[in-house]
Amino acid sequence: MSPACAELYDTIADALVDQGYYYTSRPLPGLPTTTLQQRIAQLDAEAALQRAGIGRHQDHQINNSVRRDSIRWLSSEHTAEREYLEWMDGLRSGINERLFMGLFDYECHFAHYPPGAFYQRHLDAFQGRTNRVLTTVYYLNDQWQTDQGGELLLYANDSDRVLEQVLPETGTLLVFLSDRFPHEVLETHRDRYSIAGWFRVNNSLNTQIDPAN
Ligand SMILES: O=C(O)CCC(=O)C(=O)O
Ligand SMILES: [Fe+2]
């Protein structure tokens, strides 16, 4: 691990302890941008993204009033995707070494929100009822302007207080405890690309489905 990474993991771990989330709009060392932008553009052109639903397996359903994005899960078969997954695996060990969170694996999907798309306020996990413990969102849109909508609003738990209003600008990364922070994606006025992911614990006793993803 390079000193730059160790320092970054310290910063992220400290932020998670202090406030439950970490947010930076500064591109991070080793985290790809251009290759992932090219990859999602290619997938989009090939119509390889599919409308996201809510609920899992037999409960999976498309609900236009809740979310209107299209997604595709990343896999390590493609170079750009693998580099992203490897970076997140480094972060996983970095956080485990510092906070003993027992993060076991990581899953993530590309998401495309076309103009008019949004995702209503939701929690990624309910307390004690999921194995998703830490959410990441990474953005891939150059030159996002404040009048283009599509911001992510991160709320304080059980209140309407907005903690962060995040422009989905290339290189911006947000990491937060999945069961603590309600959030929403405001209606976007231009195509909006991102990667949403979840670090999970290995909780095989847990049979509950995850809400909303
Ligand atoms: O794209 C974003 O800003 C957040 C997406 C999200 O909340 C989710 O996929 O659960
Ligand atoms: Fe979410």
UniProtKB/TrEMBL annotation:
Molecular function, one GO term: peptidyl-proline dioxygenase activity
Pfam families: 2OG-FeII_Oxy_3 (PF13640)
Domain Fe2OG dioxygenase: 99-201
Listed GO biological process terms: cellular response to hypoxia
Cofactors that this protein relies on: L-ascorbate
Gene3D superfamilies: q2cbj1_9rhob like domain
Highest taxon of the lineage: Bacteria
InterPro entries reported for this sequence: HIF_prolyl_hydroxylases, Oxoglu/Fe-dep_dioxygenase_dom, Pro_4_hyd_alph, Pro_4_hyd_alph_FE2OG_OXY
Keywords carried by this UniProt record: Dioxygenase, Iron, Metal-binding, Oxidoreductase, Vitamin C
Family annotation (PANTHER family): EGL NINE HOMOLOG-RELATED, HIF PROLYL HYDROXYLASE, ISOFORM C
Protein name (Swiss-Prot/TrEMBL): SM-20-related protein
Organism listed in the record: Nitrincola lacisaponensis
